[in-house]
Every structure is written in C-alpha cells, then in structure tokens.
Amino acid sequence: MNRPAPVVFDLDGTLIDSAPHLGHALNRLLGEWGRPPVGDAMLRSLIGDGPRLLVERGFAAAGRPLPAEEVESALVRFLDLYAALPADPASVYPGVPRTLAGLAARGHPIGLCTNKPKAIARYLLGELGLLPFFGAIVGGDSLPQRKPAPEPLLAVLDALNGPSAGAVMVGDGANDLAAARAAGVACILVSYGYARGNPADLAADRLIHHFTDLPDALEAVRRDPPHPIRHSHPAETDNDLGC
Predict the structure, then answer these.
(1) What positions carry a catalytic annotation?
(2) Is the pTM of this model over 0.85?
(3) Averaged in consecutive runs of 10 residues, what is the pLDDT profile of the chain (243 residues)?
(4) Beta-carbon count within 10 A of 212 CB
(5) Which of 129, 29, 14, 141 is nearest to 85 (CA)?
C-alpha cells in the first residue's frame, strides 16, 4: 500500500488562535514605549506577516510609526515578552488534537511550517500537548527563506523522511498558499484564521470552515490532485520573520 501523504501545517490561525497572546505582548511593548494599546479587531488585522511587521504595524496603529533605528530593539523586546507568556490550552482551535491524532493513526507524516521562531513554536506545541504529532518543524528562523518562499515547506517535507508525492499544506492565508504553489503541492485553507479579505478568494484546492473537516478535504484532494507544477514565488524580504 502507498504511504499516506504528508500533511504540513501552519501554526497561527490554523492550529491555534494566537491573537490574544500576541496582543498582550504587543500592548505591553507599546506601553513601554509610551503608546496606547490596540484593540482586538485592529490587532487581528495586523497579524500574518511575521513579528517585525506586527510590531511596525502596531506602532503605526497606535498613532506614530516606530523610528527605523528602534525597530530591532522593539522586535527583540516583543519576542521576549511573547515567549514569556504561558501557553493557553484554550488557544487550540476545536477539534485540532482529535483530528491530528486521527491523521497520525492513519499513518500521515505530519509537519509544521511556520514563520514563528522555531523555539517558540516547539515550546507552544509542547505545552499544548501537540508536539508528539509532529515529525518535523521548520520555523521562520530555520532558513534564510521564509514563507511565502517554498524552501521552508520543502525542508519540512525532506525532514519527514518519506516521499512527498501528494503532500498537502494546510494554512490560513496567502503566504501558505503561495508557498504550496511554489513547492508544487496542494493547499487546503481554513476560513477562520487571519487571512486578509475573504479566504475563498485565494483559490486554494479546498477551503474548510472547521478543522474537523480536514480528513474529508484531504480525501477530496487525493482523488482530484492539483497539477504538480512549481510556480515562481515573491522575492523574500527581511520583514517576514514569523507569526
């Protein structure tokens, strides 16, 4: 029998709702710099392109952009504040542990491809009881490239030590879709994450509204796989560091 296809997941907005923790750390940072906090709705519109852009956008949303010479120190402080927060079991989206367990029981190799720093991602997965499901993790600081480039996704597939034919990337936004398309693998998006605009407009291979819908979506992709053509991907920037 053919080995079940690898499934590679994004983290924020796909497996966990990290917005409350990110918001707490960002607002602590803004307070230390003498800026007002940002509200939840505003915060969620800022997430998705890494902590550097989150910090820069947060300061702009709080009324005044951060001077360029202060960005690096603010980013380091933000990551320290975020890493110090305890993991919240309530942040795991409904059905995630049960669905991951089912995929693992059926023999799917499972990986994580996130723009969040690898150490923080591993810590969160461990504290939330999800780490044993993952055979490979690549973070935003693991390689010179980050999503939407395909290299991190390809690195996860290589680390899973098996054939990548039929692999699927599961995420919540344009970076995940672009990485999958550039890597020549299928992409399933969730509708409940941090995508800007309507996720249905991103033209993924499948769109699911509940994580528990994933097994059926994987089977649908298996029956009707996309053409395995690698596409060009956007030029990498230093801003896409990881959330």
Answers:
(1) 10
(2) yes
(3) 88 95 97 95 83 93 94 96 94 98 97 93 96 96 93 97 88 95 96 90 96 98 72 37 44
(4) 15
(5) 29
